Amino acid sequence: MPTPRLHTEHGNERKQQLLDAAERLFTERGYGATRISDICAAAGVAKGLFYWYFPTKESLFAELVRTMRQSLRRAQAAAMTPGADPVTRIRQGAEASVRFMAEHQPYFALLDVERTDDALDAVLKEGSDVYASDVQRLVRAAQAEGQVADGDPAFYAVGVMGAVSSFSHAHRKGRLRMPIDELALLVGDWVTQALTGRASEPTTARSAPPG
Amino acid sequence: MPTPRLHTEHGNERKQQLLDAAERLFTERGYGATRISDICAAAGVAKGLFYWYFPTKESLFAELVRTMRQSLRRAQAAAMTPGADPVTRIRQGAEASVRFMAEHQPYFALLDVERTDDALDAVLKEGSDVYASDVQRLVRAAQAEGQVADGDPAFYAVGVMGAVSSFSHAHRKGRLRMPIDELALLVGDWVTQALTGRASEPTTARSAPPG
Amino acid sequence: MPTPRLHTEHGNERKQQLLDAAERLFTERGYGATRISDICAAAGVAKGLFYWYFPTKESLFAELVRTMRQSLRRAQAAAMTPGADPVTRIRQGAEASVRFMAEHQPYFALLDVERTDDALDAVLKEGSDVYASDVQRLVRAAQAEGQVADGDPAFYAVGVMGAVSSFSHAHRKGRLRMPIDELALLVGDWVTQALTGRASEPTTARSAPPG
Amino acid sequence: MPTPRLHTEHGNERKQQLLDAAERLFTERGYGATRISDICAAAGVAKGLFYWYFPTKESLFAELVRTMRQSLRRAQAAAMTPGADPVTRIRQGAEASVRFMAEHQPYFALLDVERTDDALDAVLKEGSDVYASDVQRLVRAAQAEGQVADGDPAFYAVGVMGAVSSFSHAHRKGRLRMPIDELALLVGDWVTQALTGRASEPTTARSAPPG
DNA sequence: TATGAATGAGTCTTCATTCAT
DNA sequence: AATGAATGAAGACTCATTCAT
Q1: pLDDT band at C13 (very low <50, low <70, confident <90, very high)
Q2: Which residues numbered 28-67 in chain C sit less than 7 A from strand F, measured from CB?
């Protein structure tokens, strides 16, 4: 009963304040180490108010994840040239993902939650499935054109998504010191080559031509 | 300071019982969700005994991770043919890693711990660095022979390790339904192709020739 | 950090309930033997609420000690006639202390805490120093007037305070069966005589004249 | 059943080792803060052996207290000149007590245990009663001779014992910086004067004659 | 809407004591 | 006598969640 969740202008602002505060704290200290009271303090509201906007801590997390994922998908979609061939589009999506993740590091903090918490894991999985099926569709198209070897498209999807996420993660943790644009191109290369066995033209101009 | 110091054989057995129980529970429910009392109950000992063998929950975790990592490294080392060319060796290591991870799923549970705690994070990082430098060395050798394009070896190392871990993770989570041997080969292909742009001969005989 | 900060009047009442309950229990069973849960039960609140008002058990103790000490000092100050000669004032202070302690037996329970913990010890010492310097000042004045023999004023201060506390303690423990008013006068005599070698006029009328 | 407490030579040595270790640790950290395992470690024996010699931690404490008290009584007895007048003998006993306590500081650590623990308090009280009755007897004799004013002898006994213990305690805690011999004389003065209202000849030669 | 207060199950950890050998 | 291992009852403290106002 405690959460009628009204939607006046002001109400939405308040909710957003909580989301923002949570995003920042999750990024800084992780989900588990962030207390609801911390979030409220950071948002400048009383602890009790939290439950007016969110039924549980987990639900705020889920909302945060969903929001970011939508942005990510938009970024991916915007990067993929409509008519282009499938592999190029996969590459474009991967590059855009890397860039997005570098700019929205919070996204990672979210992904870093303990993956063994079933409920949280479900929230996380929920979205990657969407992207996964995108990639799978493109892989299938590429296979039809002979660009990618036969094999379970799911396998290739995992490879692409895993690469994006591994490289981004390493970059975030400081294990990969290079400009994000360079990283994006290299990841594009890596993915393309892994998929097709051939180097491909990068999506955007390389600062220094490979020549 | 409970003065652990194992004295008898029996003491070591007990310690192992606790480690085993913990490994199982960490795998099933995750590190955070596993209580010390659960571990003791599973091992069939009183709660207080835990502290005879380990000063903290964290220390048991660290010991578990180190042990598994040693096994993983042994598996990798055993798989890499001494005289073989660098890329082949990388591939061999990757395949062995995939196999190892499939057999020792608990390893993942450990890696899935939320990286919030600095101490745990250090334990976790500690080992991946070892493997990373291995791979980097091999990449450098491969670059010297012209098999791998120039570029930061760290980048390639991240790519290899990320692939191993992404594919293994997906397999564990049931998103990749195929025999582990097939998966290992495919990962080998993926990595090789990503590194060199060329398909390579698999390490072990393929069950069904790609024909 | 549970963010105590009392806001409402009601909050202060609750805090006082906890202080009262703790005072009683500390008196009855001692600091070490009193559990936080006991205090909460006695105050009729849930265990968790304790930490809303006090960060630790120790901090409640410190607050209790400081409060009582302020009362004691007030009692002492009120008893000392402003213009009177130093020895008389010391005597007056001692008598007032004895009376205060008899009425506020809890004060003893607090002082009986084992002086092991540095933090607690500091809290305890903190206040006796104030009174000690009071007495020392008066002793110095008395020495200037030739009423008290020369010698380290600190010595006399210890003597006075020790007497007050020893007699009070014995009274509390039932080893001294007499009305508190009589005890106060006797302690006044004892202290005066020890300081000056002469009997003095008591501060207040003696019930039965010594005649 | 676990404590037949045999008494071979060796057995007694072992027991003494434990007592010595405990005495030292109680002095350093207090009773409550000393663990049985600490005592055993300090004595160089296994924890289990403790219970061969003592049924409980408390019983060791009691034994320690009793032993020290016997020494104290011996020191007091030795200091009191057999034929001397009562007040002199009280003074002699007080001086000897102060000296003893300075040399055997552990005694204090024992007295510092939380006085609200009934069992420990009983152990402590047990002995002071003996001394108290000694002093009371002497006070009565002094009253008979007109040296001490009429009044409850118990009151005076408390005064004497309290003085000894307060001054000794202050000295131990560093609040009274003076040679122990000087302190003993001053305490003798203090007590004598408090009892009789007259200064008395000190028991031992004063370094600097009072002039 | 908003707040401060209240709840209580859950967690790690300590330590005197006991036991098997 | 002696040891190392084992026990388990406590106890302090955390924190998501609920409630009265």
Answers
A1: confident
A2: 34-37, 47-48, 51, 55-57
